[in-house]
Amino acid sequence: MKHAPFIAVEGPIGAGKTTLASMLAEELQLPVIKEIVEENPFLDKFYQNMDDWSFQLEMFFLCNRYKQLEDTVIHYIDKGKPVISDYHIYKNLIFGERTLKGTKRDKYRQIYHVLTDDLPKPDIILYIKADLDTLLRRIAKRGRSFEEAIETAYLQQLIEDYDAAMASLAIREPSTTILTIDGNLIDFVENREHFMEIASRVKELMQ
Protein backbone atom coordinates (compact mmCIF):
# COMPACT_ATOMS: atom_id res chain seq x y z
CA MET A 1 0.00 0.00 0.00
CA LYS A 2 1.61 3.25 -1.17
CA HIS A 3 -0.31 5.68 1.01
CA ALA A 4 -1.32 5.93 4.65
CA PRO A 5 -4.32 3.63 5.01
CA PHE A 6 -7.82 4.39 6.23
CA ILE A 7 -8.94 1.33 8.23
CA ALA A 8 -12.51 0.55 9.33
CA VAL A 9 -13.80 -2.14 11.69
CA GLU A 10 -17.32 -3.40 11.02
CA GLY A 11 -19.87 -5.97 12.15
CA PRO A 12 -23.38 -6.18 13.60
CA ILE A 13 -24.42 -4.92 17.02
CA GLY A 14 -22.32 -6.57 19.73
CA ALA A 15 -19.57 -7.87 17.45
CA GLY A 16 -16.84 -5.94 19.29
CA LYS A 17 -16.04 -3.25 16.74
CA THR A 18 -15.05 -0.50 19.16
CA THR A 19 -13.04 -2.88 21.32
CA LEU A 20 -11.04 -4.21 18.38
CA ALA A 21 -10.53 -0.76 16.86
CA SER A 22 -9.26 0.58 20.19
CA MET A 23 -6.91 -2.38 20.71
CA LEU A 24 -5.49 -2.04 17.21
CA ALA A 25 -5.09 1.70 17.60
CA GLU A 26 -3.02 1.14 20.73
CA GLU A 27 -0.96 -1.69 19.22
CA LEU A 28 -0.28 0.09 15.92
CA GLN A 29 -0.04 3.59 17.40
CA LEU A 30 -2.88 4.95 15.29
CA PRO A 31 -5.52 7.54 16.06
CA VAL A 32 -8.99 5.99 16.43
CA ILE A 33 -12.36 7.44 15.40
CA LYS A 34 -15.26 6.09 17.47
CA GLU A 35 -18.86 6.39 16.39
CA ILE A 36 -21.37 8.20 18.56
CA VAL A 37 -23.93 5.69 19.86
CA GLU A 38 -25.23 6.30 23.36
CA GLU A 39 -25.50 10.04 22.68
CA ASN A 40 -28.28 9.40 20.15
CA PRO A 41 -31.43 10.74 21.89
CA PHE A 42 -33.71 8.47 19.87
CA LEU A 43 -32.22 5.08 20.83
CA ASP A 44 -34.59 4.22 23.68
CA LYS A 45 -37.62 5.27 21.67
CA PHE A 46 -36.41 3.37 18.61
CA TYR A 47 -36.03 0.02 20.37
CA GLN A 48 -39.49 0.46 21.88
CA ASN A 49 -41.15 1.46 18.60
CA MET A 50 -38.98 1.09 15.49
CA ASP A 51 -41.61 2.24 13.00
CA ASP A 52 -42.21 5.59 14.70
CA TRP A 53 -38.59 6.51 15.48
CA SER A 54 -36.43 4.90 12.81
CA PHE A 55 -36.08 7.97 10.55
CA GLN A 56 -35.04 10.27 13.40
CA LEU A 57 -32.59 7.68 14.69
CA GLU A 58 -30.97 7.01 11.32
CA MET A 59 -30.71 10.69 10.41
CA PHE A 60 -28.97 11.47 13.69
CA PHE A 61 -26.43 8.71 13.06
CA LEU A 62 -25.91 9.71 9.44
CA CYS A 63 -25.29 13.39 10.19
CA ASN A 64 -22.91 12.65 13.04
CA ARG A 65 -20.94 10.06 11.07
CA TYR A 66 -20.77 12.39 8.08
CA LYS A 67 -19.28 15.12 10.29
CA GLN A 68 -16.80 12.65 11.80
CA LEU A 69 -15.72 11.46 8.36
CA GLU A 70 -15.35 15.05 7.17
CA ASP A 71 -13.06 15.75 10.12
CA THR A 72 -11.17 12.50 9.46
CA VAL A 73 -10.45 13.66 5.92
CA ILE A 74 -9.20 17.05 7.09
CA HIS A 75 -7.06 15.90 10.00
CA TYR A 76 -5.75 12.56 8.74
CA ILE A 77 -6.46 11.42 5.19
CA ASP A 78 -5.60 14.70 3.42
CA LYS A 79 -2.40 14.87 5.49
CA GLY A 80 -1.36 11.32 4.60
CA LYS A 81 -1.78 10.03 8.15
CA PRO A 82 -3.16 6.52 8.81
CA VAL A 83 -6.32 6.28 10.90
CA ILE A 84 -8.67 3.58 12.16
CA SER A 85 -12.44 3.90 12.64
CA ASP A 86 -14.84 1.58 14.43
CA TYR A 87 -17.35 1.86 11.58
CA HIS A 88 -17.75 2.28 7.82
CA ILE A 89 -20.20 4.99 6.74
CA TYR A 90 -21.90 2.34 4.59
CA LYS A 91 -23.42 0.91 7.76
CA ASN A 92 -25.98 3.70 7.56
CA LEU A 93 -27.46 2.07 4.48
CA ILE A 94 -27.36 -1.37 6.09
CA PHE A 95 -29.47 -0.14 9.00
CA GLY A 96 -31.55 2.30 6.97
CA GLU A 97 -32.62 -0.36 4.49
CA ARG A 98 -33.72 -2.56 7.37
CA THR A 99 -35.53 -0.04 9.55
CA LEU A 100 -37.01 2.46 7.07
CA LYS A 101 -39.93 1.96 4.72
CA GLY A 102 -41.58 3.67 1.75
CA THR A 103 -40.93 7.35 1.12
CA LYS A 104 -38.82 7.73 4.25
CA ARG A 105 -36.43 5.07 2.98
CA ASP A 106 -36.31 6.72 -0.44
CA LYS A 107 -35.53 10.12 1.10
CA TYR A 108 -32.90 8.61 3.34
CA ARG A 109 -31.16 6.91 0.42
CA GLN A 110 -31.01 10.21 -1.45
CA ILE A 111 -29.60 12.11 1.54
CA TYR A 112 -27.05 9.36 2.20
CA HIS A 113 -25.69 9.49 -1.36
CA VAL A 114 -25.61 13.30 -1.45
CA LEU A 115 -23.54 13.36 1.74
CA THR A 116 -21.21 10.41 1.20
CA ASP A 117 -20.65 9.62 -2.47
CA ASP A 118 -17.63 11.91 -2.79
CA LEU A 119 -16.05 10.99 0.53
CA PRO A 120 -13.08 8.58 0.77
CA LYS A 121 -13.73 4.89 1.41
CA PRO A 122 -11.63 2.70 3.73
CA ASP A 123 -8.64 0.89 2.25
CA ILE A 124 -9.05 -1.97 4.72
CA ILE A 125 -12.22 -3.28 6.39
CA LEU A 126 -12.01 -5.71 9.30
CA TYR A 127 -15.37 -7.48 9.26
CA ILE A 128 -16.22 -9.24 12.54
CA LYS A 129 -18.65 -11.99 11.61
CA ALA A 130 -20.55 -13.60 14.50
CA ASP A 131 -23.70 -15.65 15.03
CA LEU A 132 -26.73 -14.68 17.11
CA ASP A 133 -25.70 -16.44 20.33
CA THR A 134 -22.28 -14.77 20.31
CA LEU A 135 -23.79 -11.32 19.74
CA LEU A 136 -26.41 -11.79 22.46
CA ARG A 137 -23.73 -12.81 24.99
CA ARG A 138 -21.62 -9.76 24.18
CA ILE A 139 -24.59 -7.40 24.25
CA ALA A 140 -25.61 -8.74 27.68
CA LYS A 141 -22.05 -8.46 28.96
CA ARG A 142 -21.69 -4.76 28.13
CA GLY A 143 -25.02 -4.00 29.79
CA ARG A 144 -26.38 -1.07 27.82
CA SER A 145 -29.91 -0.52 29.10
CA PHE A 146 -31.30 0.62 25.75
CA GLU A 147 -30.13 -2.62 24.09
CA GLU A 148 -32.22 -4.79 26.41
CA ALA A 149 -35.21 -4.27 24.11
CA ILE A 150 -33.46 -5.48 20.93
CA GLU A 151 -35.51 -8.25 19.34
CA THR A 152 -33.57 -11.38 18.42
CA ALA A 153 -35.29 -11.46 15.01
CA TYR A 154 -34.01 -7.95 14.28
CA LEU A 155 -30.48 -8.92 15.32
CA GLN A 156 -30.57 -12.10 13.24
CA GLN A 157 -31.68 -10.09 10.22
CA LEU A 158 -28.80 -7.66 10.76
CA ILE A 159 -26.36 -10.59 10.69
CA GLU A 160 -27.70 -11.55 7.28
CA ASP A 161 -27.75 -7.92 6.13
CA TYR A 162 -24.09 -7.50 7.08
CA ASP A 163 -23.06 -10.62 5.17
CA ALA A 164 -24.85 -9.30 2.10
CA ALA A 165 -23.39 -5.82 2.55
CA MET A 166 -19.81 -7.06 2.79
CA ALA A 167 -20.30 -9.12 -0.37
CA SER A 168 -21.70 -6.02 -2.08
CA LEU A 169 -18.82 -3.82 -0.90
CA ALA A 170 -16.32 -6.32 -2.28
CA ILE A 171 -17.82 -5.62 -5.71
CA ARG A 172 -18.62 -1.90 -5.30
CA GLU A 173 -15.26 -0.99 -3.76
CA PRO A 174 -12.72 -3.34 -5.38
CA SER A 175 -9.77 -1.31 -4.07
CA THR A 176 -10.85 -2.06 -0.49
CA THR A 177 -9.43 -5.16 1.21
CA ILE A 178 -11.97 -6.94 3.43
CA LEU A 179 -10.51 -9.13 6.17
CA THR A 180 -13.18 -11.33 7.75
CA ILE A 181 -12.73 -12.29 11.41
CA ASP A 182 -14.72 -15.23 12.79
CA GLY A 183 -16.02 -13.75 16.01
CA ASN A 184 -17.37 -17.12 17.13
CA LEU A 185 -13.91 -18.71 17.19
CA ILE A 186 -11.53 -15.77 17.57
CA ASP A 187 -11.56 -14.07 20.97
CA PHE A 188 -9.35 -11.02 20.47
CA VAL A 189 -10.21 -9.70 23.95
CA GLU A 190 -9.36 -12.69 26.13
CA ASN A 191 -6.80 -14.38 23.87
CA ARG A 192 -3.71 -12.24 23.25
CA GLU A 193 -2.46 -14.62 20.58
CA HIS A 194 -5.70 -14.24 18.65
CA PHE A 195 -5.41 -10.47 18.79
CA MET A 196 -1.77 -10.44 17.71
CA GLU A 197 -2.65 -12.58 14.69
CA ILE A 198 -5.16 -9.93 13.64
CA ALA A 199 -2.69 -7.10 14.30
CA SER A 200 0.01 -8.89 12.29
CA ARG A 201 -2.34 -9.32 9.36
CA VAL A 202 -3.29 -5.63 9.47
CA LYS A 203 0.39 -4.64 9.52
CA GLU A 204 0.94 -6.74 6.40
CA LEU A 205 -2.00 -5.10 4.64
CA MET A 206 -0.72 -1.62 5.56
CA GLN A 207 2.58 -2.15 3.72
From TrEMBL:
Lineage: Bacteria, Bacillati, Bacillota, Bacilli, Bacillales
InterPro entries: DCK/DGK (IPR002624), Deoxyribonucleoside_kinase (IPR050566), DNK_dom (IPR031314), P-loop_NTPase (IPR027417)
Originating organism: Paenibacillus monticola
Family: Belongs to the DCK/DGK family.
Start and end residues of each Deoxynucleoside kinase domain: 7-206
Tree of life domain: Bacteria
Keywords: ATP-binding, Kinase, Nucleotide-binding, Transferase
Classification via PANTHER family: DEOXYGUANOSINE KINASE, DEOXYNUCLEOSIDE KINASE
Protein known as: AAA family ATPase
